[in-house]
Structure formats: C-alpha cells, structure tokens
Amino acid sequence: MVGARYKTTRYILSSLDVKGEYTPDFLDLQAFVNYDLSRQWKLSWIGNINRSHFELIPESSTVAKGSFFQILNLNTEFEGSEDDYFEQNMTGLSLNYISDQSRYPFFMKWNAALYYGYEAERFDILGYYRLVEVEAGQNDEEGKEVKLWGVGTQHLYARNRLESIVQHYEWRGAIDFLQPAPESDILCNGVPGTGANIWMTRSMNGSAWILQDMPCLCLIPD
Question: Can you tell me the distance from the alpha carbon of 6 to that of 27, in angstroms, rounded to the nearest whole number?
C-alpha cells in the first residue's frame, strides 16, 4: 500500500497584510508492505517521507488603526527573505515467526525502527517603518498623509538548525502452555501447575518473563 500527498497554501498566504512572494510546499509519501516468506515467517515494512519548504520574499505592509476622527497607518518596506526547510523520515522493519505446532505453540517477533529529522530556519529581513496620520477623503480610499509620527527600522536574522536521529530495536516472544499437559511438564517456581502463559519480552533495557494465570511467578532479571 502506497500513498502520497502534496499541498500548497500560497493563495491563502497572499491575502495577508504582508505583501510579497510566498512559496509554501508540503510533500508526504507513505508505504506499507507485508510479505509472507513462508507459512511461519512474515516480513513487514513501513516507511514515511515528509518534506516541508517555506520561502518568503516580503515587499511591503500597511496596517491601519484608529477611529473615525483619527486614522494611523503603519507602512513598512522590506528587504531580504526567509527560507525554512523541515524534513522527517521514518522506517520500520518487522519479522514475525508463528509456529504451527498444536502443542505449546509460540511466536517470536523482531522489530527495528529508525527516525531521522532535520529542521532549518534561515531568514534575514530588514523592515523600514513609517507611522503616519491619514486624513481620508470621499474620493480617496488610501487617504492623505497629514502628519508623520515616527520612523523605525527592524532587523530579523536567524540561522537555526536541528538534526535528530532515533533508533529502536526490540525482540518479543510468547509461548502458550494452556494446552492440557501433565503436572510434571509445568513447574511454577517449584509448584506444580496445570497450565499457564509465559510471555517473554526483550528490549534494549533487558529481559522480562511474566507467567500469567498463575500468580506464583514473576521474574524480571537484571
């Protein structure tokens, strides 16, 4: 099974107060595969690739505030650009074994997973601001500047980068002792029993053996 998605929001971003050239792109690829190697062995694989890129070249911005009697406009001219990139990759592999024996069936499972992420934010933008008072006319929507309240400059600069790698390995197994068996076949910490499930799990933190339906045994080795 394979899937893909692509999305862009440049038409939505073009309606913002900051006018300029917006280039947002998003791409996502997914895949999941199952393959039966034999009657007992089964192999599974999953993968995901995610890419997101955002580029902005701002040009100008106008924000109006005030009331009917006094209108203030904050006009801004920009220089520079912003370029952001985000990437996430994930893959996982699973190998399963299920025995077909009728007495004491068991299974084993090996899992391995890898994640890689990369993020980069790069922007260098200069903004030149003018705060002016505007007198609106009947035939002039933008109005006429009648007073300059102040000017200013702002510089936004960043070079941020983050890279991460996560690995995971795991082994799991289980055996079913619920089939009727002589008492001599199953011992629980020295106490005879009539049947139980022993679940075994092993990971990077160690091993654990848990005996269900018979509370006399629960061993967690160091």
Answer: 5
